[in-house]
Structures are given as structure tokens and as C-alpha cells.
């Protein structure tokens, strides 16, 4: 059979016995065929394996999504905490906090704008903190080093106000005085971390006077603030927390079914115990949601060693879980600042290392003064 090949103009060349090129296989086509073959083999050799896998996943997901977030006080606490946080914001809490910390940054010869994402994040929304603070840092002519300091410092604050509130509940159940812990774990890092990073890793800083600080107190009415924050809290619970928790526990279920999860969990638990962090809730903070972790602290008060509560509280009140640090934060800051996604991840990881060290130090040295023997 002859095929016609166009050379240019009206000239034609007839190729005899030539064949059309075979289509290239895409990598996902190959993976898809392998999955089909493996599924058929599993159905033939172990007919109930897929049902067992699905059952394992359901047993992992259901207790958390349904029993913890939908039918217990935890889900309501998430919504209520968002309402309280937005009311505090409407009353000027964030503006007051930023104006207290900005002068301290001037003393350290650091652009005061670096404190804005952390102070805003105290009331909890790490994504909004990046969207709001990134452009402010650019407008304030913050260097790339100072923008990295801002990211690393932001990781020291709870990524959800619900985590902070539920953590306070857990502390009260264990009879722990929250004031010194909040002072040292939440507010002190806003000053200490920028100072340490400016003197060590990110030295390209300079003293800048902000001509005009942005306003963070909304102008909405109080009734509008209450009802819109209730909607925001519900969306946070149903559209962010529960989907994220479901996805993570699906993977945990798959790993459990494959027999891989147990050694991972055992090794991680041993490491967290060495760091004076309650292992089970520490793993939840890292992989799933700190909100769930502090809720589990409160629910399992009779079975958890009180000596691990301080470290667990500090770890949970951070930028975790890990997929936020390596996923959401880089995407947001790369769009709103001068940093690339890789630079944001590096700064966020440095911030997380500092947070783990803080949890360990406070867990070892502060616990004896807060928890009775």
C-alpha cells in the first residue's frame, strides 16, 4: 500500500510499504493496565481481598470522620472557635497584637512586616495569612531573607484557631496552667524565631519604618461577622478538615492492609516519645490534623501520660499537618511573594524543625512545673 508524503509546494513523494508510527504509550496507560491485571489476579487468587481492603479503609475513616467530627463536640467546637476568632478579630485583637510586636522588629533591625503573617495567624487561618501578608511584605520592600523569616515564623502559630481552643480544653482537663505555656509556646516564638534566624541563616535584613500599617479589623457589622464566621466555620469543617482527614486515613488504611503502616507507626511513635510528645496524637498532628490531635488529647485524658501533654500541645499549635507545609503554603506564598515554591518549602521546613525543638524543650523543662508527679 502506498502512502503520500508532502514535501513542499506541489511536489509529492510516494513512499511504498511505509507504515504509520505506532502511538506512544503514556505512563498512566501502563500503570492503568498494570492495575487492571493486578485487580483481576487478586479477584482470581484472593476473591475477598478487595472487599477486605475497602473494609479496612472504612474502619479507619469512619471513627474519625463520623464519630469525632460529625457526631461529637469536636465538630461544633471547630465552628464555635472560628466564630470566637472572627469576633476577636472584629474587636481589634489582630491589630493590637501586630502593633505590639512591630516595634520589637525595629529593635532587631528587621523589616516589621515579617511579624504580620504570624500575628494574623494567631486567630487561625494559615492560608489567609499567606494571601494577606505576602503582598504586604512585597509592598514593604522586605528582602527575600525577611520573607523567608516570615514563613518560618508563621509556622510557629496554630494553623487553626480551633486547634488552639481545643488545646486549651485539653490543658484544663489535665489541670495544666495554660498561661505560662501560651506565653512561651505561642507568643515568645514570634520574637525569638525572627531574631535567631536573622542572626544565623537569613542575615539579609534591614531596619525599615512602615509608613502605614494595614488595618486588620473588618468593617463589617457584628451580626454580619457572627453569621459569616458561622458559615466559615462550617465550611472549614465540612469542606477542608473532613476531606483532608478522609484522604489521609484512606492512605493509612491502605498501608495497614499492606502491612506497612505498623512499622512506620512504631518507629515514629518511639521518636516522638523521645521528644516528650504523646506519640499517637503527635502522629495525627503530623499526618492528619492538629485539630483532631488535641481533641483526642481531651477525649483520652485517662489513658494519656500527662507528662507528654505540654509537648503535644506545642506541636499541634503549629503549621502542621505536613501536607499544608509542603503543599498549600508554598502554592500561596509563591503567588503572593518574591519566593519560589522551593524557597517557601525550605523556610517552612526550617520553621517546623524549630517548632519540634520548641515542643521538645518545653516538654522536658516546663512540664515538671505544670504537671504534678
Average pLDDT, to the nearest integer? Answer: 84
Share of residues in strands: under 5%
User: Which residues form runs of ≥5 with pLDDT under 50?
Assistant: none
Domains, number: 1
The main sheet comes to: 2 strands, antiparallel
Tally of strands: 2
Organism: Lederbergia galactosidilytica
Keywords: Membrane, Transmembrane, Transmembrane helix
Transmembrane segments: 27-46, 66-88, 164-197, 236-261, 281-301, 308-333, 345-371
Protein name: Membrane protein
List the helices and strands and how they pair.
Blueprint: E1 2-8, E2 11-16, H1 27-45, H2 49-70, H3 73-90, H4 93-107, H5 116-121, H6 126-139, H7 144-154, H8 161-173, H9 178-199, H10 222-258, H11 261-274, H12 279-287, H13 290-299, H14 309-316, H15 322-336, H16 341-365, H17 367-370
Antiparallel strand pairs: 1-2
